Model the fold of this input.
Amino acid sequence: MPHEVLALLNRPSMDAAEHHPGEPALTFADAAVAQVNVLDLGVSRGDGIFETISVGNGKAQALEHHLRRFARSAQMLDLPAPDLDAWRQAILAAIEALEPGEEAWVKTVMTRGVEGDGRPTGWVYAAQSADFSRVRSEGVSVALLDRGYRHDVEQTSPWLLQGAKSLSYAVNRAVLREAARRGADDVIFVSSDGFVLEGPTSSVVYRRGNGIYSPGTGLGILDGTTQANVFVFAQSLGMTTGFERLTPAELAASDAIWLVSSVRLAAPVRAIDGVERPVDGQFSSALNTWLKAVFV
Amino acid sequence: MPHEVLALLNRPSMDAAEHHPGEPALTFADAAVAQVNVLDLGVSRGDGIFETISVGNGKAQALEHHLRRFARSAQMLDLPAPDLDAWRQAILAAIEALEPGEEAWVKTVMTRGVEGDGRPTGWVYAAQSADFSRVRSEGVSVALLDRGYRHDVEQTSPWLLQGAKSLSYAVNRAVLREAARRGADDVIFVSSDGFVLEGPTSSVVYRRGNGIYSPGTGLGILDGTTQANVFVFAQSLGMTTGFERLTPAELAASDAIWLVSSVRLAAPVRAIDGVERPVDGQFSSALNTWLKAVFV
Done:
């Protein structure tokens, strides 16, 4: 069985026509062969959406949450609504076709399609995951970087697409290069008015006493699928969970911090802007074991 | 001769290896056939750069300015430096292969390439232009929209890539949909601290008395190739030209305003946020005639 699987959707949205009328809903293709037109707005304008989903022992994790968020991103970009049944089937078929393994990942991409064509382009790509065991135990050093936006732009200026998972991720990549220049592994974004937001591909969660918290909603940040599961785990241990708007100083005063995301799962933060901080190894280990096994 | 031409570069940058060792520098391809890998960071992350160049009667306009800006965008994104000689040759070859016509356009795209591969992907696409005569005379109505960033983020937070022409243009598309919802044709971005910036695919220029001005440099906006030529035209008429940081109220008090860009050239602004304003038809006409013919 293959190490990677690419499946192309014939009809990513019921609001648009099939690409190949009468053909099957899903076609497996060679990921090494070009599949995207140069005039596809996904590549010419970064105009599309995606989700990256963890696969644990052959099961997609937080699948329905990812699908809901995919639909919400589509809405924020005024894209045709994804046919979630078709996408769910494509995700499951790609996982089934993939060589079995303990940890894998699936990425769904829907673009606005070729300019003027009116049909979104959609595909699902699945592959085995890299080994993240070291980063899950030893953690990451992070740089705090200005995202440039106030914390409330999602409400005041929705056209800035904050909170949507779009293909326009050049800034999310540029901040990792800036972090590397500063000797850090990852980034926590701070709003221009001084609030902690999220990582470029992760949510921030932190422990204070017997509570697990996250900067939460309404800040133009993603509704984290892994963050939601971290809360479920914490609640199962009788811990308090909640969302708080907080400053970097307040974050630094917490007992432990993690960047949590699909695929990499929970990476403890072991330094912020060069200042070392305690890593809660026991909680990290239990959390990652639980996240690897969770099927909600 | 074809209505559209696609040419793929074998070696977009001398800092990276050829895609097809020993093969020609340029390959013509069918633009209707997929040419981009789903794992190309250009589509998966909007991680790449572009330029769109006017072609007037078979001649690329402001070519060296576009190439300089392409190289600057690459630098801002930490991409390998484009081999400007190879790009220039590709642009000229694509124009030569295109069916002759009065007005055409060429787009250059360089992406970071397939993740982990290390070789940027590069292509040039050329096609005949649409007929913009009506918009050049009648003008556009614009909505002022918050860009969310302070005017100085290019200096304080270069990782936000303001001033680079990147493929991550989902916001530049979203603002046009927001403008349409407001009954407007186009957009002028305003910084979060209240300064006029640029359009999503154009520069703002305006006339006050015998002077032609633009919001100018250092504001995280593009170094406009057409704006530069507008200044050359104005200077040839003995007019003053210059850059000014200004507010929307100051802009509204000017005698005439244009959104200027490659391909569409100078579109007079006939309304801002629903308030009609004078269009300088005579200057617009002379300017567009000159811009269509210019070869610098």
Q: What stands out?
A: Chain B has a mean pLDDT of 97. The longest strand of chain B covers residues 48-56.
